[in-house]
Write a structure and sequence with these properties.
5-stranded mixed sheet; disordered N terminus; alpha/beta; globular
Length: 255
């Protein structure tokens, strides 16, 4: 982690207690961290006193936290399933959500691995190494990974069960492959392409792979509604589009 990024996250974390009373508290999928760092800095340019704090983690875990105690202002998750739970519980302002952008799955190996790009099933079944994945109970990445493997070959998820190493969120799944020279992993494209410590072995086909959408929702009955709406609007701006494309995310497909 760069010094600048570490300082930014430290500053955001340090202001959580204050922001819960005066600023904006954003619950967001871990894979959105680098994107949101930039977005927060841009958002604060015209209003330098604005406080925005991040709570990053697996979307399913964050949804459970908000259902238990809805103290966040904005929820940004990696899929519709988890934010739907908040809508069904009546926690979203107007019951509305907004699609921000999309992502894709990739199979990765440590940068020092001798593996080269090949068919995902071949790479997974030839190897005997662990396969780093997100825990399906904690993060959408885990559910997407299971769906992708089952679409490649029915029963493949179960075949690999003893080698799967579930992690709490997308960033943790990536980090495990970065640190273990023989590991494979299934992560988001946006995370993999910016890490010099991993390489992409295969990418999910846009037609057969799971559709991965990042969805924004504003929580109701919160004191920061106006700021929350302004922040979500900023996430759909031209500046946001430039940044998410730069980071490897994909523009939303026509509905």
């Amino acid at each position: 982690m760069s010094t600048r990024r570490a300082l930014l996250l430290f500053g955001l974390s340090a202001s959580v207690a204050c922001s819960r009373q005066h600023g904006l508290l954003v619950f967001a999928a871990a894979s959105l961290g680098p994107f949101l760092e930039t977005m927060i800095l841009q958002f604060q340019v015209p209003q330098p006193k604005a406080q925005v704090s991040l709570n990053l983690g697996g979307s399913a875990t964050l949804a459970r936290q908000l259902l238990a105690a809805p103290k966040g202002d904005v929820f940004l998750c990696a899929g519709r399933e988890d934010i739907a739970k908040l809508r069904e519980s009546g926690l979203l302002e107007g019951g509305r959500t907004r699609t921000l952008f999309e992502n894709r799955l990739v199979l990765i190996a440590n940068a020092d691995s001798k593996l080269t790009p090949m068919n995902a099933v071949t790479a997974l079944t030839r190897s005997t190494s662990i396969v780093s994945v997100a825990d399906p109970a904690a993060a959408p990445l885990g559910r997407y990974s299971r769906t992708w493997l089952e679409s490649l070959r029915p029963g493949l998820w179960s075949e690999l069960h003893k080698r799967l190493s579930p992690m709490p969120d997308a960033r943790a799944a990536l980090t495990q492959v970065e640190r273990r020279s023989q590991a494979l992993g299934i992560v988001y494209r946006s995370d993999a392409i910016h890490s010099p410590r991993v390489k992409v072995i295969a990418e999910a086909d846009s037609r057969s792979g799971p559709k991965i959408e990042y969805i924004a929702g504003i929580l109701k009955h919160r004191p920061n509604r106006a700021s929350a709406e302004a922040f979500v609007a900023h996430l759909t701006s031209g500046q946001a589009r430039d940044r998410y494309l730069q980071l490897g995310f994909l523009a939303p497909s026509p509905s």
